[in-house]
């Protein structure tokens, strides 16, 4: 990030006080005042969350001693600067003009808030429970077949900026520089777990192996599993689709149906797996800085991914009616291009994923039996329904 010289314009900046009042600091008209004294829509537009959620996050950060008021800038404005940058992908110069602070002040408070969010990020992630998610329990397409499924695991590539000497490992299969981020998601659009920072060239299975073997690891409850796509192996705790089996991305066309148990399984699996795509779309729409190459050190770029996911979870926790969640909850079918009707990704449909995870033959066979039993149960009930109509 470029750092501008400090200037005296900070002396003119104050905000509407929410938590405490600084008696020695006089109020004046500023951008933060306009946003926080205006309608909630203004807060959503600028800070990417409703006003009450914004204020509560300020309280949390202050109560834990992670942020404090200074003589020139309050906690609300510190958080506002950070959210405005990641919510609009604004560079320092534009943020300077908006908040009327020097580049040094913008940079310092951006990093202070980022580090504060990172310190409490684990509080915003919860491991899955042992119960059947209601999104499965109350949908006859998925219950009782996927009753032991707790969510989905998928990867996403986030653009990165690294030095010329470091670019090789970060160049992904599409030729772009990225970090390979793994996320475990719940069906109610929360992140259970996020691992960021792996090079873009790293195979997805290797990133999953890292998530399972590191100290702060991805936990799968006993007897439960996540759904994964064909980039990952079918193994204990992770159920993948059948390789090389074609299925429609939406519902089957009128007059057509699945030809066998594997095709039906892959179709139902894909409907559930779409949760990962939806949660990634919400995340990127709320924080478009993740769509670009932010001019920060690599460590900061990695932190930004974790912080964005943590704030996403916090918003979901505090306001389930948040406008972006409501918008994507209404999606009943996978998000695909109109012309893509009956195909899966030809680049990965018949490939065996690179397996770095150590599983013995017995474990792999048991995982295969789990998948086969789900497919068989789905198919038997499907055929019964056909003969009874």
TrEMBL record:
What cofactor does this one take?
Answer: a divalent metal cation
List the Pfam families hit by this protein, alphabetically. DDE_Tnp_4, DUF8040
DDE Tnp4 domain ranges (all copies): 169-313
User: InterPro entries attached here?
Assistant: DUF8040 (IPR058353), HARBI1-like (IPR045249), HARBI1_dom (IPR027806)
**What are the subcellular locations of this protein?**
Nucleus
Q: Which residues form the DUF8040 domain?
A: 27-119
Q: Which GO terms describe its cellular component?
A: nucleus
* Key words of the record: Hydrolase, Metal-binding, Nuclease, Nucleus
One Gene Ontology molecular-function label? metal ion binding
Q: Does the keyword Metal-binding apply?
A: yes
Assigned protein family: Belongs to the HARBI1 family.
Q: What is the protein name given in its UniProt record?
A: DDE Tnp4 domain-containing protein
What organism does the record attribute this protein to?
Protea cynaroides
């Amino acid at each position: 990030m470029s750092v501008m010289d400090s200037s005296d314009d900070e002396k003119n900046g104050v905000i509407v006080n929410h938590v405490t009042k600084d008696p020695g600091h006089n109020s004046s008209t500023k951008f933060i005042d306009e946003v926080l004294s205006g309608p909630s829509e203004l807060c959503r537009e600028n800070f990417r969350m409703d006003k009450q959620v914004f204020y509560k996050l300020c309280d949390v950060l202050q109560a834990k001693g992670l942020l404090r008021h200074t003589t020139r800038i309050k906690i609300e404005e510190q958080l506002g600067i950070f959210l405005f940058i990641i919510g609009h992908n604004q560079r320092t110069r534009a943020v300077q003009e908006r908040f009327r602070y020097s580049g040094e002040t913008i940079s310092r408070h951006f990093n202070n808030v980022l580090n504060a969010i990172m310190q409490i990020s684990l509080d915003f992630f919860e491991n899955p429970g042992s119960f059947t998610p209601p999104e499965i329990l109350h949908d006859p397409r998925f219950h009782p077949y996927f009753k032991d499924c707790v969510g989905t695991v998928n990867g996403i590539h986030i653009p990165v900026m690294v030095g010329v000497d470091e670019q090789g490992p970060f160049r992904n299969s599409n030729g772009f520089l990225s970090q390979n981020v793994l996320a475990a998601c719940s069906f109610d659009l929360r992140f259970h777990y996020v691992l960021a920072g792996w090079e873009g060239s790293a195979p997805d299975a290797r990133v999953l192996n890292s998530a399972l073997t590191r100290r702060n690891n991805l936990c799968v409850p006993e007897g439960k599993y996540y759904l994964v796509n064909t980039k990952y192996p079918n193994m204990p705790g992770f159920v993948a689709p059948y390789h090389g089996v074609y299925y429609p991305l939406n519902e089957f066309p009128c007059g057509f149906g699945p030809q066998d148990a594997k095709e039906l399984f892959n179709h139902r699996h894909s409907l559930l797996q779409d949760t990962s795509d939806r949660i990634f779309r919400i995340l990127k729409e709320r924080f478009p800085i993740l769509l670009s190459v932010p001019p920060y050190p690599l460590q900061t770029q990695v932190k930004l991914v974790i912080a964005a996911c943590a704030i996403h979870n916090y918003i979901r926790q505090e306001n389930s009616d948040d406008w972006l969640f409501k918008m994507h909850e209404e999606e009943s079918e996978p998000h695909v291009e109109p012309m893509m009707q009956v195909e899966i990704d030809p680049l990965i449909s018949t490939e065996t994923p690179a397996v770095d995870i150590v599983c013995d033959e017995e474990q792999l066979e048991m995982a295969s039996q789990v998948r086969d039993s789900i497919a068989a149960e789905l198919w038997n009930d499907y055929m019964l329904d056909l003969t009874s109509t």
